[in-house]
Amino acid sequence: MPAPLKPKQEAAEARLSSATLPQGAGWITEARRAARGRLEAMGLPSRRDEYWKWTNPATLAAEEAPEAALFDGGEAPIFEAAKALVVTFVDGVFDAEASDDLALEGVEIERLADASRADIHWARDLYGRLEEAGQEPVQRPFAALNTALAPDGLVIRVTGTPSRPVELRYLHRDTRSDAMLHHVVKVEEGASLTLLESGPGAARFSTVLEVAVADRAAFHHIRAQGRDHERRTVTHAFARLGTESVFKSFTMTANGVLTRNECVIELTGDDASAHIAGAAMGDGDFHHDDTVFITHDAVNCESRQVFKKVLRNGAAGVFQGKILVKAGAQKTDGYQISQSLLLDDDSTFQAKPELEIYADDVACSHGSTTGAIDETALFYLRARGVPRAEAQDMLVLAFLAEAIEEIDDPALGEAVLDRLQGWLARRRG
Description:
This protein is 23% helix and 38% strand. It is of the alpha/beta class and 429 residues long.
């Protein structure tokens, strides 16, 4: 039975009543009002909603953000070696002093707060449009809330292939911060961009990323979600792919009391490719949810979903992934795998893989497994002199390898692997 609508609408109204739509030109004001209308109609989710039954949205929907302690591990930024163009937000507020000059060949970068004041801007054809399309057939209320209220973010138009990545660095300095950022990326035909995201963002952090990838263009996205353990995060990525285009996204998550990452991809051009992957490691009061919806609406397209979670001391993991193949989307190749490694009997993993296919010439598969450390492999390592704790860490990293290998850039993959090794070493100590 679906959740009653009225309490959900009341929760949305309570959240909206204490906020005002940010100021801007007519096109963005119209988009924000439309998003607010969508949210008022659908309401905020509850545990009785099908796609929220394993993740409690109460603290994400509450009027005020729960307090989250600050954390400083003394580590250098994870992507520092990439020498990216860095744009810094502190609790959702742009920090000019900590950011690089936004000039970079082949890319136009603006703050959303600045772009939204222009009467005519390319972003008006994208802001809120992909999010609105992504509300069917599954409602995504927190994405609509973000479109309506996010005061800032970046709008990025890619016309070439820049010499270095762009990194969005999110810092958390206020234990009660409640931040929203909305990013729009347009990758023109034949262009390519690597976008990095890192850091905890805020006590409660919401981001929406809308990406339009034109014909023969490529977009690579690598995200490392920060280690502030008490943070709560909800993210949405919406993407539309043209002919022979590429979209690849990888997310590493270590710690966080509640994380919900949603990804909604539509392949609309023939021979397009979309890869979505994630590696999550949680200890104790940790809840991590990956929810993915990929629609094939063109011929000879490929999609991959590869998600791995390592859970211990009562941590919880969720995966909900769907591949929809529309009529006419022949020669689709869809692959989906979600796996968890439970390091004790108290941790849990819930999975809901789905295929919905309306074409007859396709190769689609999905699988989900949950298990413990392989005792035979552990014995093999220990018999060769490897201490038990180190041997277990080696097997954990081997388990995560398939997801990490989805990162095309070896140096960025190595940075992710190093950070995960550090996480394991600290808990071993």
